[in-house]
Design goal:
about 525 residues, alpha/beta, Rossmann fold, Spore Coat Polysaccharide Biosynthesis Protein SpsA, Chain A, 3 domains, six-stranded parallel beta sheet, 18 helices, about 35% helix
Length: about 525
Amino acid sequence: MEITFVSDFLLADLKVPGGAEICNTILVSELRSRQHTVLEVRSQQITAAEISASDTVYIISNFVSLAEDCKQVLRTKKYLIFEHDHKYAATRDPSPFKDFILPKDLLRNVSFYENAAAVLAQTKIHAEVMRKNLPSTCNIINLGCSLWTEEQLQKIEAVVSSNRQFDCAVIKSNNPIKNTAKALEFCATRNLKYNLFGDLPYDELMERLAECEGLAFFPTTLETCCRLVVEARMLGCKVYTNELVGATSEEWFKLKGADLIHFVRNARANIVSKVEDLLTVPADSNPGITVILNAYRRTHLLQEQVERVRNQTIAPKQIWIWANYHEDAAGFDYNTLGVDRVFNNDYNWKFYGRFAAALLADTEYVALFDDDTMPGENWLKNCMETMKIQEGILGGIGVKLHSDSYADHERFGWASHNDKIKKVDLVGHAWFFKREWLSHLWTEKPVTWENGEDIQFAYLAQKYGGIGSYVPPHPQGDPSRSSSLKGYELGVDDKATSSAANHHIFYPERDLVVRNAIKNGWKLVKDEECS
């Protein structure tokens, strides 16, 4: 693949390169190592005519010096924005504003972000702040980390020491946003012996940092990640900071030392693969997906679930929430999630309600998720690829029945890691199907509205549409393609309809639906295999 990488500065241009230039250089190097041709161009030197005549895809990094006519022509091309700060803001800093939301008159480059195939954020909070300020149509993807070379990681491993001479490291900087004065004050009030040092070559910087038990750093503007803070954690240091450091918003920030080094090393490969995927997905590969999430008693999981859906490499056109009433969630504010539609019901419609809402979708495909289902970033891509091989109702867990008793079954999907597409009798947890197939679900009235919508959909789609049910591949070595990354962690609490306390109700209801379906013509996989 031919890629043109555009940025205001290249690494060689700066005596003391910033994190953006370091990160850019690593990404370019990694892409070249994967046999891609990457041309690096300064944004002030590229012309609209060159872009118009080019057949390459583009990665746009810092673009303050990029001419407006270049941005206009780029909108006709495929490009990613590798965001390092906040160039949608006239101030380049959303920190002074309540909830990081800028006044509309301070927004810049909005259409340029909106037309990008994806906008790549560094961390969770970086992505969240961009989503607060940019249109919902922007495809904002959280890369979840920054990039380090193997040589840098090896240097960190080499200098980790148990011989700490100082309580705290403080970075000496004349830049007020680095807030050296606050760090010195912090050390003084706690009587901490500190080591004050400024810009140093990388190896020496890591050696000096390794001499300290901790790092004090209190920026005044939102740091999208902050490489120094992550390096301190990899060196085993404590970090004293504030809520303006992006790295602290990530789950992995609780790691340190060898565990964090291991994570960062793996993250490099994962980030480059994600960029590759985003660059190679054809423009017409997303015919439109509406995602519908189900809310009932686990509203505390919705924020994470929404973020995981937004970070899909094939992004949904819209995200909806179907909220069944329960007193546990009566005070929850769904407006905080920033989704496109909320069906906030004053009644518990149980399992069929979300399928009724799906009839209102204006996309070719619909994806439904149970409230305990956290998909990997390539789940929707996995479904689209599976559809090209085998159309059908796809799901995160597939059930193959061995008799007319629901309890007598075998499961496939995230719980068993099937390497190939698996034909099953019904699917659940995460559905993916063509919207037009929903008509089959309403052809016959269910024998009960209390349970079994997954069984009923599989049965009626087969009976009236000749449509089977399948589980996409869930390879154990690639969690990004999984429908559910936390199934065993989140799906076993007392809020689950299928919890052990409810078995005396749950299984008889499902047996009723299974037997009704078989009686009326549902053909099970086991019978097809025997014929």
